[in-house]
Amino acid sequence: MHExxxxxxxxxxxSGEAIPDTTFEDFRQALARLLVEEKGYPRERLTxxxxxxxxxxxxxxxxxIDLVAYGEDGGPLLLVxxxxxxxxxxxxxxxxxxxxxxxxPAPLALVTDTREAILLDVASGEVLAEGMAAVPRWEDxxxxxxxxxxxxxxxxxxxxxxxxxxxxxxxxxxxxxxxxCPLPKAGV
Length: 188
Known about the structure:
This protein has about 190 residues and is α+β, with helices and mostly antiparallel strands. It has a domain at about 45-170: Alpha-Beta Complex (tt1808, chain A), CATH 3.90.1570.30. It contains four helices and eight strands, in the order ββαβββαβββαα. The strands form two sheets. The chain has a six-stranded mixed beta sheet, sandwiched between helices. Strands 1-2 form a two-stranded antiparallel sheet. Strand 3 (about 45-55) and strand 4 (about 60-70) form a beta hairpin. Helix 2 (about 90-100) crosses helix 4. It starts with a strand and ends in a 16-residue tail after the last helix.
């Protein structure tokens, strides 16, 4: 299923701004609300629709990540990718995005369809937890992230991760109303 415009706007939970309403936006908003209201994430440490961009064939390609939680140092701690399908199908795409995100790699990544979730160690690709209980609380996230190495990526590894992200993203996603890729955002 691709993200398509519903022709209206809704109020963004994190910023309070009016944003285009899409087939996925309600899910993004629900994830942001879950992180803030149930998991204790400070609203100012979350950013939605963060672009992961890199050159492809002389142009800049971008994959939008649904939510990113940033630490005190401004670096990404957790990348959250919403998927319209079985989360396990999106593990590799999520890992590639978490390894390529501006200011990263992020130490942890979460992929969810809002019914199931998989928490991943970005350096190793290991599944740390499954189910919606896998969504870490803010205080647990900071401890989990601090104990995880951020992998150093050689230029050859970066190139492989870019190819993987590009292939998965082009196969599984599409853009809506020009919101494909905002400029990469630095940590909050």
